Amino acid sequence: MLQWLGLPGVVLFAALLCDLVIVADASLDGFGPRGVDLLLLPGILSLSACALWGRSQPVVAAWVGAAALVGSTVLIRLTGTLPYTALLPNISFAETVAGLELVFFCVRAAKAGIAFATTSAMVVACLLATAGRDSISSRSELVQALVSGFVLLTATVVVAVQLRKPAAQRVRSELMTLLRRQWPLVGVLAAAVFMDIFISASTGVFALVVLATNAGAVVATVQAIKQPVRSALWLAGVMFVCALGLASMGERIAYVSFGGFPLTQVLAGMIVVVFLVRTAVPRQATWSIGLLSLVVACGAVANTIDRDQDSLRALFVSALLLLGISVATGLYFRARDSERTQAVETAVNEAQTAERMALARELHDVVAHHVTGIVVQAQAAKMLGEKDPRVVVDALGQIEHAGTEALVAMRRLVRSMRGDAPSGSSEFSEQATTDLGADLRKLVEAGNHGVPTEIELDLPADLPQEVARSALRIVQESLTNVGKHASDATLATVAVRASGEELHVRVSDNGTKGAAVLPGGGYGLIGMRERVDLLHGRLAAGPGPDGGWLVEVWLPLDGDETQ
């Protein structure tokens, strides 16, 4: 919901929340007829709805909003309801924010002439509401209203005009980027700012001091996300200036419950402490929190000096409690961040390990198979070349073919490691078999390092790709071991068939030496076992009942079991 509202919607929601609190309290305060202040709500809610509508239909929503503002003014005037003063005289927070957002949306999206006419209509409606809802007591108040309205309108139009430009020509602001990304934090701070403005609205110059220092506190709080220590120093300076201003003007009553500080700055201090504990180095966080605490203590003493000892003690306990809550929250987030970082690192390490193991299996099963053929053919040519030179020519042709295949396989592996696989392909998918039967026959027809091989196939039509690829690699590795280590074998047999819910792979030879005896420590059986384990299958390898070596594998055909 909040993501749908966006930054403008969150600020509007904060203003609307403050209006509801203020109006609800005013309707029960005993001044005037009970509940009459609730008549302010129709105008507030209708203009807020127009602001939300303005994101899709800015011009129409702005004209409807202007009409709603005028209609609300008429209703307030006829019923004698007393409006309250917020940013502008006699206009509530939500109405002010909604009106500015309607102007913003219109100037940003509409043509210049239409935007000017629509903005003028909103200004006229605002002036009617300011003068028509309740009389302005003095000329200075009127001048202040005009100046405030002009400043808000100018700032809104400037920002909207800036956003009319193409994205490449816009002035990028790191602060604005943070504000857009951290809209929940902005919403909380905006609500506090609105409440501070309402509390200090009747204090004259003091209200400007509160507004200026609150703006600095909000900026410091948002920047604390990236630079908590610097933000803490900035916030300490802002709070010191505010406390000094309050003490020099004697304005202590409005914020005596908060130790003499505006609500926004109290909230900002808590948030900055949370970010300090969460992200800063412990030593820097400690002295930064100490500095903030010192400024708060001095400001509280300076602005609550006329209070009794019990009140000061209660204020101290409250401040200590808020500090403890902030530190505890920061520690919680720090622990959660640490756990998340550790989990991510563990996942990355596991993924890297799995990738290395997959690459090792592919390198061993594919490249080593061709290299083994090269070695066997070279040995045969060396042994028989003197007796029959034609053997050398034939062996060189087979060596060339095996070398070409090894080079192609190596290039595929390199592309996989470099991340240059085609878009949409998965790990080693370009090497995956699309027809297991054809690939197995091609493997056998390639000569199997000089050992004659028979093949028996009975494959299901819907064989899962991972099962097919693993079966191909297992047969390939088994035949490679036959060629390398069963030197006296005269026949190898490959049988691959479906057996119930499993694919049964059987590779055997009739040699007298075990094909799995790997001098120097080979990885053939290790790689096969890893492939089988990944698919939750079974592997058996050992001497066959009729001599030679036998490898049998059962791979589940059910996709759920292979997850």
Automatic annotation (TrEMBL):
Where is the Signal transduction histidine kinase subgroup 3 dimerisation and phosphoacceptor domain positioned along the sequence?
A: 355-419
Q: Where does the Histidine kinase/HSP90-like ATPase domain start and stop, copy by copy?
A: 470-558
- Is Membrane one of the keywords? yes
What EC number(s) does the entry state? 2.7.13.3
Keywords linked to the UniProt accession:
ATP-binding, Kinase, Membrane, Nucleotide-binding, Phosphoprotein, Transferase, Transmembrane, Transmembrane helix, Two-component regulatory system
Q: Which Gene3D superfamilies match?
A: 1.20.5.1930, Histidine kinase-like ATPase, C-terminal domain
Q: Which SUPFAM superfamilies match?
A: ATPase domain of HSP90 chaperone/DNA topoisomerase II/histidine kinase (SSF55874)
Q: What is this protein called?
A: histidine kinase
